[in-house]
Amino acid sequence: MLLLLVTLATIVLLTGAALWQQQRRATTFRRLLELSPNGLLILDRRQRVRWHNPAAALLLDPAEQTDPTGQPITRWLPMLDTLPAPMQRMETLLRRGDQQTQQDLTRLPDIGRQRILLLHPTAEQQAGSEAMERFKRSQYFARIGTWDWDIGTDRLYWSEAIYGMFGYQPGDVTPSYSLFCDSVHPDDRELVKIGEQRCIDTGENHDEEYRVIWPDGSVHWVRETGNVVQNEQGQPVKMMGVVRDITEEKRSVRELEQRAHQDPLTGLPNRLMLEQRLVEALARARARQTRLALVFIDLNQFKAINDQLGHASGDEVLLTVAQRLRSAVRSSDMVARLGGDEFVVLLEELSRSSRVTDEAHQISEKLFASLAPVITLQGRDYRIGASLGVALFPDHAATMDKLIHAAHLAMYSAKRSGNNQYRLGEDLNTHAHTLAP
């Protein structure tokens, strides 16, 4: 069984490195191949050695460990004029200088025009060797495992590392294709089955990312690659492949996406996320014949507090304002931070039947009320004033850029008129509206 593990790992790891073509991942696969106790030889069409792992050099010439790269394989295996069929195991003559011995080898499935030979060490060579244990440990720490599925009998072989990727310990379960399917997330099963069937039908390499559900209910991500093995009649008899745990990679990607769309201090959506949401909101408002409001908010006493009390107190103000604004609107609305002391509120599903001035007044009154309570900083109470610019769709602008521009100009117009005031996008040349002293 351990010998089968190494055989499977060698072919699928090599295939996986070619498939993914990403330097960091390819390096991991190459490292695993280099640790394999079985010798791996990749030959060109003229049977010259193109690549080999350290074990191959050791098995061909343990005394000198001559580099076989570029040499014809018949230098060491003189009777190997004709290669065996893929997946066929055979014994052949091995010449080491003036000595001759028998070498057990298997021809693995070809990859393009490359021929692949796997040299099996003898029991004596394996005895006392730590190479197999190093290889198994490297699989475990790299979160990579190999599998072999007999299509006709449904028998499935897992290397030890795969058990852990599916939430089991070796010996807990007997691997089978049905167990594998049950472990795949229900939403991903059809995708995986289609990919595997395509591999069987066409011979194309199988490469899928999917989720697995552990016995404890937790969800993990894996990436599976594999290829089909055919018999002498060209009929598919098995699939062999590799599985890699990509849960941490998925988590890192998700965190990067969140950082790209979120303000790092408050956790609110940033400008990029606001613009994406605004495009969608405008489309909904047009389709449903509703109104939406975009409110730009600028804090009035923030700079003085930040300069006098320090950035820590300034951050506390921003966090408090973010929480208060979020509590003042519906869960379907959005509060975003553009940077500094500027916030934006996006309100959807507003009725077009109400007067524009009444709608703006009601919105502004609610936001001012949420910001009215004092904020205690370093033992003293402070009131944070704000200036609001309100622009409504379709009343003040019909596009995203124009709506943002209208709200922004209205906010600065209100700010020039004093504290705690708002101005409508259409009222740039009229008096500001005061709601609080």
From TrEMBL:
Residues 156-203 form the PAS domain. SMART domains: GGDEF (SM00267), PAC (SM00086), PAS (SM00091). CDD domains: GGDEF, PAS. Signal peptide: none annotated. GO terms for molecular function: nucleotide binding; transferase activity. This is PAS domain S-box-containing protein/diguanylate cyclase (GGDEF) domain-containing protein. Gene3D superfamilies: 2.10.70.100, 3.30.70.270, PAS domain. It comes from Halopseudomonas aestusnigri. It is found in: Cell inner membrane. Keywords: Cell inner membrane, Cell membrane, Membrane, Nucleotide-binding, Repeat, Transferase, Transmembrane, Transmembrane helix.
